[in-house]
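Discussion board: Methods & Data

I've been asked by a reviewer to show the raw model output for two of the constructs in my manuscript, not just the figures. I'm not sure how much to include, so I'm pasting the format here to get opinions. Each protein appears as its amino acid sequence followed by a line of discrete structure tokens. Is this the kind of thing reviewers expect to see in a supplement, or should I convert it first? Here is construct A:
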Amino acid sequence: MRGGGKVAARAKSPSPPPAPTTIPTTSWAPADRSVPEIIGSLQEDYYNLCMEKSRKINSFVWHLLQEVDEEIEKGLEGITLNIPGNSRLMPVERITGEDFWILSRILKKNPYINYYGLDVRYNLMSDVGAYYAARLLQKQHKLIYLNLMFNDIGPEGGELIAKALHKNTTLKYLRMTGNKIENKGGMFFAAMLQINSSLEKLDLGDCDLGMQSVIAFATVLTQNQTIKGIYLNRPILYGEQEESTVHLGHMLKENHCLVALHVCKHNMKNCGIKQLCDALYLNRSLRYLDVSCNKITRDGMVCLADVLKSNTTLEVIDLSFNRIEDVGAKYLSETLASHNRSLKALSVVNNNIKGEGLVALSQSMKTNPILSNVYIWGNKFDEATCVAYSDLIQTGRLKPDNTDVEPFVVDGHVYLAEVSNGLKKHYYWRPTYGEACSQSSNAGSILVPVGPDL
């Protein structure tokens, strides 16, 4: 493996720092002890391995391993090791590729623990860490969920991980979001999906995929029958032909397994959404369609409204950050009011919709008993809009957790304020307090569950 040799060499080249004589003084480790109190097996193994390899103990990892050991002592199964580099609730010392090498050694060394997942998002692993992540996937056969988002992994690291999944039969959920594996790395992942038969959810959003790799994924998914959710957000596409949507549309006609398709920031216009809608007349598996952050206008809503009259499987549609305006909202409202009885959630956030279109959507909820979640913030509210959604909430037709607005009254006039609810509010970041995977903030993955909320 050409990329593997280069990465392995990089992993061994740095000279390790001298071993600390005492555990680093933090809020989690007592300052008056030269030898830390060992609580459980993972923490003990981590300490011993750091001493053996002359590695500095990462106090953040030390604290989190202590929590995991306490869970193990309680007899909990399905352990997920969360080491997020973007945690706002405690001081963070981000892990590097060499730190991940120590972690991978520990995880491979403890086969008696029932591991479920490993979350190392927003760290500094680079291709060095990707090399050890690939080796972990080859050795650790209890790992089901792996989150590597935003770790400075490049095309070579992507190649290593993709090739490691050729023989891995246990990993079901992988998130590579934000690692610039580019077109080269994307092609290796597409080739992997021709061989791997266990992966169910793959996130390659913001990975700088090119047109070639997007087309490759669309081609492979015509045959792959295990992938249920795929994120292909923000590829680097040139030209105005929307060739990628042609291939994605063909894939939807052939694929009868895919449940969730995320194609944000594809520079998709009305021609592109028409390609997808034409396929949805034949598709009977897709339940979650995410076409947010594109250039779809009211003309594209003619196609979508028409397909919703006959499609009975779509449950969640994300149209956020397009430009459907009043006319597009009214097309959808008419279909939802009189024909469709399968759609559960609709997001039209930031679509330049005014009062007429927003009121029409609210009216459709009065006759449609299935539509439960509506997100409208970022449009142009008038008093009629505020009164309409206030009435829906006060009568109980629209639950407060199922929308992103909340009514309030000033001087006898009703206004709407924004609340932090949505289909995927915490896709990139973690809140300063509360649950990162709350049902109200990530309703899309609750309504259409495809494994854990990565």
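Construct B, same format:
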Amino acid sequence: MSSGGRAGRRTAAARLLLAAAAAATIGCLCGLAEAQLTGVLDDCLCDIESIDEFNNFKIFPKIQKLQERDYFRYYKVNLKRPCPFWADDGHCSIRDCHVEPCPEYSKIANHTKELEDCEQANKLGAINSTLSNQTKEAFIDWARYDDSQDHFCELDDERSPDAQYVDLLLNPERYTGYKGPSAWRVWNSIYEENCFKPRSVYRPLNPLAPSKGESFYTWLEGLCLEKRVFYKLISGLHASINLHLCAKYLLEETWGRPRWGHNVKEFTRRFDPTETKSEGPRRLKNLYFLYLVELRALSKVASYFERSIVDLYTGNTQEDTETKSLLLDIFRDTKSFPMHFDEKSMFSGDKKGAKSLKEELRLHFKNISRIMDCVGCDKCRLWGKLQTQGLGTALKILFSEREIRNLPENSPSKGFQLTRQEIVALLNAFGRLSTSIRELQNFKVLLQQTS
């Protein structure tokens, strides 16, 4: 064999090694792409690739259009409810600081950088409450219509004098600068006190907890399915929210004109396996799991909306008809998905134990929804409350199958009813998850381009 042939083979082998090394580097940089975020999800029989294709090409474009419809763009929320778990520990005395966005600054107010961060957090986190007089008049008619319906339950929060309609299109979920001890206290309270977790087990990467104790994931794998599912839902919601903030990050603000866009560095910090001690891909798998659960709820509740008596009322007959047609089209897609989460696998033990466990889960989730009133940033609180209510509505649907199946075609029923707010929250919360999965694909491309 000639030396030229051997040299050619060595060169080819070197190229292959370099290509393999480059691929490995990209996989590491992406932190989740082909390497660790693939295959079948735990606790269900569905693979990530099927969800990506179904969401990005079928559901995402339609859910985006639905969220622009008047029925779904206005959400009534009370942002003035006091935190029921701890007292306010400081305020920023800056315009638009309606709640407690940055309590840590009361102790270090002499530091210019912290004050600038506080001012930015207030400005970015303030709610745009602009509504036309015509829209305000329409809300009176909406309320009159809702009051005439046979509601499943009455939500005090909606009827509070402090509750207000918010235009979700004018208040997109994005980076607000809300961070530090105040934000950590909220998530720490959710994870440490409301996920059935003993104090001897520490959640990874929690700066407020010591690094010793039993392995978190060893403990999680030993839980019963229902409690494991509960944790994954909360973790998936957390991952989704973080993805939104990375995708709509304040990249620069020149002459009062902010430029929002994808922050690859921030995304890597939150989700890359090397940056997160391998927890990042787990978080994103939990996002997919949450997507499946809410997708299943939409497919189960389709028959509720298919009835002629259900009207997505805004007073504009043509728009209402088009909105319902688009919603039913989305429901048809959700029912066509071949690998749904099987909620029947939950609470399948003895009836008494299953009933007790279901009530325990309900109370834990209710507590988490109350913690959202402790979020110290108006815009973060708005989207936290909406997405929590959306998930709560999805769980309500999954555990009301018999009642939904027995609904009469042409008359209301006390067996199962959804309020306007529950409907708006359900579809917008799912829309946020759909956006997260779509943005995940965008980040994969950006990471490969920068590697």
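Answer (T.O., handling editor elsewhere):
This is acceptable in a supplement if you add a one-line summary per construct. For B, something like: The beta strands are 74-77, 164-167, 249-254, 257-261.
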